[in-house]
Amino acid sequence: MYAFSAEPVAGIRVVPLCDAIGPMHESMRQPLLETFPGSTPEMWERIRAEQPEAFGPDGEWVLRFYCFVLDVPGGPTVLVDTGLGDRHSPAASWAPVPGRLEEALSSTELSPADIDVVVLTHLHSDHASGAVVKGEPAFPNARYMVQQRELDWIAASPGNPVGEQTIRPLREAGCLDAVEGRSRLTPDVEIFPTPGHTPGHQSVVIDDHRLVVAGDVVLHPIHLADHTVQYVHDEDPATAAVTRAALLDRIRERDGLIAAPHLPVPFARP
């Protein structure tokens, strides 16, 4: 089951913000059988019939780029991921369109100053670029939370644009918090390591997996059809597949929902 919205979980409302919609850039485009190793033509035929909005006119992958706001009663306002950023961001070299996160946020009657915590699931440019605008933190009152393993991974790649244009300004502003493993934001909201897509990938778990904002653990409906299907741009595809299987199993046990940035619709029941 796919949905555009989700009922509150433990009183927490999770609101999707559509930052952008567009096809995978030509520089990164490959046949889907190569992009998702382990998939089959029969799987793609079924996915195209069930989720036609995930494909363009030539069969290319059309991505949604969702970020998510957690409205926690009596607690912090949490933003999960910050999208593509503007035309000068680290994602601009490949993104199909610039992001429009501030516009999407304003539709919820929130401003950037209302965000208390920003959780970056990982440091790929389509998830982290909107964290900084014109060299300054885009959410001026927020703490930005990233796994230390992810920071170490970026630091090992000198010149990485996310490191230079996103992490360095956040560090210099004194608002970057390195997270070591699991970390609880509220009694019902926890940051939870989900490695594989990147070494320090993390997800946000609400009420023990009744709803999980899962970053790129799940990238495409094909992963819900068969969690063993890999993704060519995972840093560690084998670990990513194990992480995906464990996470989806736990969500199913809790009869929960997954919120995934690149699905055609932001919420799905595995």
UniProtKB/TrEMBL annotation:
Please give the superkingdom of this protein's source: Bacteria
GO MF terms listed in the record are: hydrolase activity; metal ion binding
Disulfide bond listed as a keyword? no
Q: Name one Pfam family in it.
A: Lactamase_B
Q: What SUPFAM superfamilies does this protein's entry cite?
A: Metallo-hydrolase/oxidoreductase
Q: Which UniProt keywords apply?
A: Hydrolase, Metal-binding, Zinc
InterPro entries reported in the protein's UniProt record? MBL_superfamily_lactonases (IPR051013), Metallo-B-lactamas (IPR001279), RibonucZ/Hydroxyglut_hydro (IPR036866)
* Annotated ranges, domain Metallo-beta-lactamase: 64-262
Family, per entry: Belongs to the metallo-beta-lactamase superfamily.
User: What is the name of this protein?
Assistant: Glyoxylase-like metal-dependent hydrolase (Beta-lactamase superfamily II)
What organism is this sequence from? Answer: Thermomonospora cellulosilytica
